[in-house]
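Researcher: Quick sanity check before group meeting.
Model: Go ahead. Protein one:
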Amino acid sequence: MKAAKLPGRYSDGGGLYLNVSARGARSWLFMWTPAGGKRREMGLGGYPAVTLARARAKASDCREIAAGGGDPIVERDKTPEKTFGEAADEFISSIESEWRNKKHRWQWQQTLRDRCAAIRGKLVSQVTTEDVLKVLKPMWTAQPETAARLRGRIERVLNFAKVKGWRSGENPAAWRDNLRNILPKQSKLARGHYAAMPYPDLPAFMTDLRAVDGPAARALEVTILTASRSGEAIGMRWDELDLDAALWTVPASRMKAGEEHLVPLTARVVVILRKLAETAVGPHVFPSPAAKHKPLSNMAMMMLMRRMKHGDLTVHGFRSTFRDWCGDQTTFPREVAEAALAHKVGNAVEQAYRRSSALEKRRKLMDAWSRYCSATGQKKGTLF
């Protein structure tokens, strides 16, 4: 190779050439002529970074591809196949802009990492229906909603992999015409999107909760009594509260639906908040113990539930508990209960009509809910 100093191309045989530029730079080329086509060339890297031996090995691979009717350039430019774990991580990064808070990313990462540990190291093209079943079966009846969500996430990852060219064929995590023939339908499983506490058990739980000290316990109590989403409650700020009017205004930026939500506060909630205000530091009602300028971690209430031996339930499930109680134990209209949960009911005209009177109706509903949560020996079937 040292003799090749003049500009030009020097053949090594088998389509491999050393190209010398006018400035003396040397690089490897592979040249071939497809059947019925024009002569083509592809760079194999510069010399001496790519040695003669390495260049010959690359040229050999190219000849094999060309002999089989393939295109060495197309093969070179293909994205290397990923494992399921790598594909899942890349997919999460590609869709994280869809999520309003970091909790969603954590949930996707946690389920696709911990729940799918058995298949994360497997090439995504080799994931089969049997692999998906091994992940889902142990939790399908014990944790139906978590399992259903995980199935959907696995399906999306595998669809992503197919678009990327890492796999082909049918999606082994698809429900229709696939898993639905093996696993029971979701309608036959436990009701509700999140594992929830039956409302008859709630008063006793609230008694235990009020005996626990600490910000996580108070945050969970407020979350339950306001029927709020956990993120809305732990992100509560002092400037959102009017304790004299017993009103909490959650700004649109912190609401799932992107609209401002007014929450009437019960006497018990006001007592809790006034007590917390005595030692308030920073803008958050429930500040992080580690950083007062940040809110309590999303995990704080979940960990508290585990310590209270209710790790099989979810904080969000208390919204289902509230809704079931409303429907079974009260005469409040459905739209009032749905408004308390910040759910939209009816068309825009109906929503505008209800807005003026719904707040006071909801205040009566939340007062009744607070009384129920504080009750001991509550008789089933009592209407408020």
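Researcher: Fine. The other one?
Model: Protein two, sequence then structure:
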Amino acid sequence: MDQKETRYQEFLPALPLRPFIENYYIIETDGSELFEKKAYASGCVEIMIRLGGGNWYVRNKNGIRLNPPIELWGQIIEPLTYFCDGPGCMMGVRFYPHTAALFLREEMHLFNDQVSDLYQVLGNPIQYLYEELLNKTTLQERLQAFDSFFIKRIHGYEKQKRHILLLDGVIREFKREDFWNNIQHVAEKFGISSRYLQKLFVQYTGLSPKLYMQIDRFQNSLKLLEQNSQSLTSIAYECGYFDQAHFIKAFKSFTGTTPSGFLAAPAPLILTPEIS
């Protein structure tokens, strides 16, 4: 689809929220064609709120499901198709891999490979935000409503904030060029056991450290593929795969297709958040 049919914009949250929320975004479609995208494993959790227009659906191996107006996207590990049958406007919130639990007060693995009704998780507070967004007339007012809602939810919960700070450091270690998949070493560096690190990681990200690193490697390969300037062998080695065959196998496990097949398909809707 060209940009006349689909519009996508990102916006930074208020300063107090930037350690926890990568961005807000808006997706608008004019309904001239069926809007359809594939979502692949990204390592992050998102919220999407429907602000009018057509119905939005997801399709996976279990069939097609009509989405609720207030959506919680858990960790998507298997490919998921997302589409709208008419003109639509959707506003979203993209968290960092380890931060959504601060706002949701839930263990994130409970939502893996699901698009859940966020009202069932947060109740009236998220319903009030939804109604407020519908009543706002400008984008700026809606962004301010997001800021106000999420700022209120970060007050208190100091234990969770400490865990998030710890996991932020752990994820930075995972992303170091000299990292060698030694979870025990990373845990010791932060003064905790590897078992406790595994527990925290699953609780806050929904993923094991190993699966998170596999997704991060996969997402790095996506970025290099889209640049279309390197061979598959070069991408495999740069992203830490043993060889091209291992790269293709891992890539297919997340997308259902080969790297060359992916390049011929629409770009994924959900991208990896960057930890700066």
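Researcher: One line on it for the slide.
Model: The first helix runs from residue 100 to 104.
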